[in-house]
Structures are given as structure tokens and as C-alpha cells.
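Deviations from the work plan: none for this task. Representative record:
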Amino acid sequence: MDTIWLVLALPLLGSLLCATHYRTLGKAATGMVASLAILGAFVASVQTAYQVQLRHEFTAHLSSWLHIPGISGLDFAALADPLSATMLCTVTGVAFLIHCFSMGYMADEEDYGRFFASLNLFVATMVLLVMANNLALMLVGWGGVGYASYSLIGFYRQKPSAVSAARKAFLINVVGDVALMFAIFIIATHCSTLEFKAFLQPDKLDLLGGDLILAGLCLMVGAYAKSAQLPLHTWLPDAMEGPTPVSALIHAATMVTAGVYLMVRCAPLFRFVHGQELLPMADDLNVIMMRFGAATALLAALCAIAQNDLKRILAYSTMSQLGYMFMAAGAGAYGAAIFHLVTHAFFKALLFLTAGVVIHALHGEQDIRKMGGLGKKMVGVQLAFLIGSLALAGIPPLAGFFSKESILLGVFGDGKSVEHELLWAVGILTALLTSYYTGRAYVLTFWAPAQHEGKLHYPSSSMTWPLAVLALATVAAGFGGHDLIQSIQGQAPPEESFGGLQLTALAVGVVGLGVAYSTHRSGRQRLVPEGADPYLRGCEAIDGLTKSLAASFRGFADKVAIKLDPVVSQVCPDLVRRSMLSTSTLLCQLQSGSLRLYSFTVLTSSTLLVLVVYFLSRFISGGGGQ
Amino acid sequence: MTEGMITLGLSAVLFAIGSVGVAIRRNPLIMFMCIELMLNSANLALATFSRYYSRVPETLPDSIELASSTDLGSATDGAVFVFLVMTIAAAEAVVGLAIIIAIFRTHKQVDADELAELKG
């Protein structure tokens, strides 16, 4: 058995142990067990990555799983290649740090065991999603992370808002699950295999014919729901109802990137259209992906400017960064997309955890307008948030600069088509907005005049050292980019020269941060006037649209019901009642109560019956005889 | 007219008397006796058929034709049914008399025309 299975088995075991033995283990030991399980998984992931380095890629079969006649490749098997190894290391590494952080953050919680059981279960399902070597097994993990996310968003189950947010997230995720399932059906019927390495070969993809577009679209809808892309994004901001470590792990670093992973994993399918020029609408899927990615990036960044809740700002920023990744995937820069995914996992987890510390310190306050003045009191935390913010804003030498740069370069391409230049411009504009809202959050939280009173709740050491490790990773990750892109993409990235494009990106980052600092240093709460809010909050409009759509449906149903209800619930039963009553009155007269009449009736009618039968039989036999 | 036809005719007459009695009398006891009479007329018919019309083709009346020689049952079939009917009649008499007594206890009279409480 390969060590890769340990990556799946350990979190699963940890989850079981936490769920069943929480009472006997006690708080400290439960957290320890959960964290150690993830640490073990991380070590196994690193070992797997090393094996991949040595042997290139390999498949680890555990057992056969489903037997469906005519469809092969439905085994319980793991695929280890540079892509999945990178994902496994990122997921388990970040998850380990967040588990350690949670031990401090959740220390006062009653339901400690349930929290760690769900968190471990999440890691197990995410790992399954990443390592699966066929689409069907991936769907198991895909649905599993949806469930784990549901149970963790709704962790504070006494809060109605958390429960409804969990339900919303689950529903929208299920939309994606169903879309993915349809993609599986289409691919299975045409290619008769679901194994990635098998159906992504050109000769198999050829069998899809015109349905290739349909399969691609279904895959994209699945990815969009999971990765909170327009128009299926509305669950992500609401998902911030969950505990902050959950937001950091699931709704920033790992689960939401599953969509990007799916796009990269199925890249040959999207590229196939491109390369063979089989269909006249050849490049459509990629163009759609790029445009939607750009739209999500821009609209989410606009929305983040108008937010005042620290966690919601970060949620919209996550959406925006995921938009970048989809843009890169659409442009064919898969290596850049995964590179940004990894660096984003580090710096966004860092930002979320720091936000968690700040919220913890202020006793649950999440509104940045009521923060401020924390910079001098919590120097280390402030520094960690600064590093995360600079990375998000794309300032060198932090990781965010390199990954965002590789995406923008990938989108710009050779710069010959207007479309690519426009998308690049949108990316740059988004980068400007990103650096502004990040700077605003940072300045208002730490350097604006203090808006709060009372004692601060300082973090324990178990909460601070993961921040340090993540900060270190954020600084260092940028330098591994070249190798990572090469191993994912299969070819070296184009030679980079520090030219006008990079300079523009750097300049907008600095300008955004500068504007944020000069505006908000004095404690001024907003730069844009209140009146512009409805335009900025374009993303949230989808929620309103859904609501008004549902309301109009309900209004229509109301009208029909008002008309139909009296008929169904009053007229119809009344009709039945009256008909039964009149029939029974009629029949009652037969029951006179006179015993002699009854016996007389019986006698005469039976005599008559005998006579009738006798004459009839005479008649029939007589007719038959002659 | 054969012997069999005479007893069958007697059976028919008894049945007619019984049925008319049930229809016209108001006393449940008499009605009950008439029912017994009808049952016994049926018994008589059964016994007659098994005695005169079973298995012995030359005793059959001319008008009756057999489809095959196995068409009729054995000579004891009718007699067995007579015993069955007599048993049932005895059981029925027990239940019926009990009901009549119960009615008499509650109503102090047993007129079939007056007992019409279940009419619609």
C-alpha cells in the first residue's frame, strides 16, 4: 500500500476518534489527536510529493469499487502527479496550521469534539477529492466537502443566521454537484471510462463529438458553484457565519479552490476544443471561462470596497482572487492558476487567522469601523496582517506578486488580440481595487484612532505560532513559482523580463495602498460616497434578484391558490357529501324495519331468480340445439 | 308418477308452507318453526335425490338424460348432506332461541312488526 492512502486514512480516523471519544479524551487531547492526524497526513503528502519527483506520476490502486457494465475506471484508486501532490501538500499543510490555531481559538467552545470531528472530516473529503483518479470517486469527495462545509458553517447552531447560511451554501453546492454528475453521465456514455488519464486522451475526447461543449459546460457549472463564481457565488459571503478558522481553511484556502483544481485537472478537455478545431465554436468554453472569471474578479473587488465586516471583506477578496484563477485557466495558464492557488492559500489563510485573532481580541467585534488602534498593542499580529495584505496587494517580494503577475502575463498572452488586452486591463483594475480595500481594512483595523474600549483578549501562543509559519510561507512561496508552473504546465513559463506590464501592476498596487493609507489613517470610514453603494454591491444584487424571483413565483402561486383553494377544499368535498347524503336517503327507504317484508322480498326475488334462470337456460339450450 | 316424484312433491309443499309462514306470521317463534320446516323440506329433497336418482340409470325418470355415467354422485352423498343440514339447524335453533329470549327480556314482547328499531 502506498503512503498516499495515509493522507486519506489519518484524517478519517481522527474524525472518527474525535466524534466518538471526545468525552473520554477531554478537550486538550481531542485537539491534539485531530492536529496530529493532519500532521501525519501532511508528512505522508510530502513523502508522496517526493515519490512523484522520483517516479514522475503513478496510480495507487486500493480496490475495485463500482461495477457498471461498459464503463471502466471506477476503481478506488489515487492518482499522484505534480498537480495532486501540490494540492495535497497545500491542503494538509494549511489544514495542520489551522487545526493548531483552532485549539486556542475554540478553547472556550462547548462543542469542541464536534468541531474537530467536522474539521478532520473536511480534510479527509478534500483529500479524497484531490487524489481521486476518476470523476466518480472525485464526486464522492466533492459532495463530502459540501457536507463538511455545511456542518461547519452551521457550527453555531443556536444562531438562526448561521443555520440559514449553512443551508444556502449546501443548496448552491448541490447545484454544482448535480451539474458535475451530468458531466459524469455525458462522459461515461460517450467515452465508457471515467478515469482521468483515460478519457482525457485525444481519441477518447473525439468520441464526445458535439457533446463535448455540453460536458465542458457542466464541469464549469460544478466548478463555479464550488468556487463561488458568478452567478453562483452568493453562499460564500454568508458562509462567514462559521467560526473564523473554518472560514480560513474551507472558504479561503482549500475547498473553494476545488473548482480551479477541477478545471486544471480536466484541462485537456478544454484545450482539445482549442487544438483540434473540431467545432466552429471552438474556443467558446475558454472565452466564457475567462470572461466570467474577469467579471467575478472585478465585481467581487467592487463589492469588497463597500463592506464593513472584516470577514466579509476577506470573503469577497477570496471570490475576486478565485476569479483571477479562472481567468488564468481560461487563458490556458494552468500553472499560473495553481501557483496563485497555492500562494493564495497561504496568504488568505494568514489574513483570515489574523482577522480571527483581532475578532477574538475584541470579543467578537467584526466591524472594522469599530476597531482601530490595535497596531501598537498587537505588534506581531499587525505585522502578520501587513504581510498578508502586501501579498494580496501584489507587492514584491511577497508570493502574491509573483503569482498574480504570472496570471496577468498568461492572460495578456502575446497581446495580439484586443480581447486579451481588455481582460488584462480588467485584471489590473481589479488589482488596484484589491490593494485599496486590503489597505483600507489594514489601516482601519490597526492604525485608525481606536473606536473601542475595554480590555483586549490577547491570543495564546498556540494561536500565534501558526501565524508566524504562514507569514514565512507567504514570503517564501513566491520563489518556488517557476518550478511549480513548469511541473504543472509541462513546459517552462515564458522568459520574463521586467517590463511595462509588471511595472503597471506594481504601480497600481502601490497607488491603491497609498490611497488607502492617506484616506483612512485619520479614521475616515469611507472614500466613496454612500450614494455609490448600490453600484458597488453588484454582487449582492444577485441575492435580491433571487429573492424577487422567488417572491414573484410565490405571488403567482398565492393567486392561483386563492382561486383554487375554495374549489378544492370546499366545493368538492361538499359535492361529495351531498351526493352521499341523497343516495343514502334514497336507499334508507328500502330498510323499512318490517321483518316480514324482508322475508317476503327474499322469497319472491329468489323464486323469480330461479324462474328466470330456468327459462333462460331452456331458451339458450333450445336455441343451441336447433 | 314414481315414488321419487311423490316425495319431491311433498318436499315442495312443505317448503311452500314454511315460506308462506315466515312471510305472514308475526310471532318470531312461529316464524322460527317455519324456517325449520323449510330446512327439513330441503332435507327431504336431498334424501330423495340420493335414494332415487343416484348411480342407477334405470330408476331415472325418462325426461332426465345423463351426460355421462359418472355424472351422479354416490348414494350416500345426499344422506351426508342431510346430517350436515340437521347439525346446522340445531346450532341455528340454539342461537335463534337465545336471541328471541334476549329480545323478550328487554322488550317484554316479541312481535316481529314492532321490532323495527334499525330501520332507515
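The longest helix of chain A spans residues 538-588.
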